[in-house]
Design brief:
This protein is α+β, with helices and mostly antiparallel strands and about 80 residues long. The protein has helices spanning about 40-50, 65-70, and strands at about 25-30, 55-60, 75-80.
Length: about 80
């Protein structure tokens, strides 16, 4: 039988922005807490360098960073930095 009950239908983004690689740096801000999510998501946030809610890091954009962001895209907000 398929699972039809959803705990929080209104939580999380309806759509996520297109993940396009930039040549520069990106600003990653944690907008939701890792509490209540899987250990893998919490470790991914820690690997990115985010320690707590509303923490911000600036990193060089790369395919490996985009893979990490894709795993926790509902917990973070990513904006490119213009230099």
């Amino acid at each position: 039988m398929p699972r039809t009950f959803v705990w929080h239908p209104g939580r999380g983004p309806k759509h996520t922005e297109k993940n396009e690689l930039t040549t520069g740096k990106v600003r990653i801000e944690q907008v939701r807490s890792g509490i209540g999510h899987s250990w893998r998501m919490r470790q991914t946030l820690e690997a990115i360098g985010l320690k707590h809610h509303q923490d911000v890091v600036v990193k060089q954009d790369s395919p490996s960073l985009r893979g990490q962001i894709k795993r926790v895209r509902h917990l973070v907000k990513v904006t490119p930095i213009e230099e």
